[in-house]
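Notes from the pairing session

We agreed to fold both candidates in a single pass and log them together. This is the raw record for the first candidate, unedited. Please don't reformat it; downstream parsing expects exactly this layout.

Candidate A
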Amino acid sequence: MRNAEKSLRQIITESRMQARMQAVSTWLTSGARPLGALLAGGLGTWAGVWPALTVGTCLLVVPLVVLARSPLRALRQMPDPRPRPDASGDAGARPPAGSCPVVPAPGPALASDIGRKNSMDGGTP
């Protein structure tokens, strides 16, 4: 299910927001772990280990209820990606030439650079 979740998020998110969407998703899931551990430790200290485990087990039902009530349950195939309009409103057009950084293609290595180590490799510059 994890891959289907990522695929669905990637389809419904604009391409320029993909990295931000993935970063927020990772931050939320990773950030919830220490908070949950802190709350579980506090509950275990306050109420005891068995009540804390019982509460944790009951909380595992929450995602099932959320998914059962969501519209994703009725989804049988992946939706078509939405067209990405540019500034002029023309869907499917390429972005303007100046909007993306240009990465130069790698050139051939110079004969003097082959076999020579630089200061990053521990050799002399």
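Candidate B (folded immediately after A)
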Amino acid sequence: MAHHSKSSSKAARDSLRHEMLAAGCTTADIAVEMRARWRMRPREAWRHAHGWTLQETADRISDHSSVRPGPSGAVAADASLVGKWEKWPGPSSRRPSLTVLLMIAEVFGCQVEDILDLEDRRSLPESDLRILQHAAAPASEPASPVAASTAQPAVPEGPELVRVAAEESAMWARWAETSNVGDLALEQLMADTRTLARDYLIQDPTAVFTRTRALRDQVFALLEGRQYPRQAADLYAAAGYLCGLLAWMSSDFGRLQEADTQGRTAWLCAELADHNELRAWVLSTRSKIAFWDGRMKDAITHARRGVAYANDGTVGVLLACQEADAWSQLGAASEARAALARASDARDRQGVDHIAGLFSCPEFRRANYATAVLLRTGDPAHAVQEAQQALADQPFHSYGTRSQMQIAQASAYLALGEPEGAAETLRPVLALPPEQRLEPVTRRIRELADAMARSRVANSAPAAALQSEAEEFCMESVPRRIALSPGTAGA
């Protein structure tokens, strides 16, 4: 039997636990390290990994048992009994029943097999081992403990048979009831997702990307565990929205291939969650990615598909705007204007956005699309009017939307032969800090500078100044910073 080293002092254990937690290690990682370093029994290592005393552990087991008693009733544990359970199968120990082992595992937040080693298994009765064998069953076999155990020969007889049957039923009930996430945790996940969708519009985008990725990883880790079906659906929805956010951000960083990957994963999550609003937003995101990738027909297809799921919120407005944007880029003026009209109709019957922020299309955002579409379809005067009214009357949406609208307004001024008006309109855009210069903005700036170079005012002072400022603006931008960094933001 393994004996733990006397160097396992409380100070040493606490120091190790705090160091590993600060390094991002899990409780399971800490338990493994303690077992390896101080040769602890698995149950003792898990207790110390949590930083609990024997009495604190006993109290937790007793409290847990009073709420969810086993087939033999509630367990009244004390420090001495917990200590004996930890030492088993050594001297002065006591073998815990399977019900007790399951309770200990639930209190520690781990699986039963995590608190058993080979020595424990050698000392367990054959009937108990049969019940535990479901944990090691191949993926093709049933995951249910009872389904797995019934495939084994019926060894016990008499009272032992009755006891084993009760243990099997208790084990199955606990397995079926177990969830690694609660309703309050799910509410918090969605609240955090809403915060990220809002913060992206106004804060440093790379910092928000990092936070979004971290939250997505938490949701993915939870999905690897066990939940009730409705909880799993909620987790898939959260994962879908988070991957959708990462997809949108990745395209704003100029990383279209990575954005497409995030978009496909978001769609899978929407399907697994059977969530129509999420489906609509994912298709809107994929339409946006296709647009900036030059795949206008794909952008139109995604936008049209999304309308079938747009039963609530403002996503229907955005989808119609995105279709209009793609048609106008193709030079199809009548189709673009028809899509703009549908966006106005959708605006009149819009509902509440459950995530909002980036996943919303208020009037300011619709006006931005309308300005660009009107400009491309040969109506610069109305484009200027649309932009001026929105900038004067509508609540602020995001620095990215505002900048794109101002660039479109400047392009309209240029088309009307007013280079001074274009230069004046662009001043706030060119003053954007580098961390807010996203790909849609830098690309629009380049397009405007190229258009001015080809215009009849190409030799004017405003045109020459814009060429120089546009080049400098794009050199210090988020896409360029990411392209020049040793890593990638597309994880």
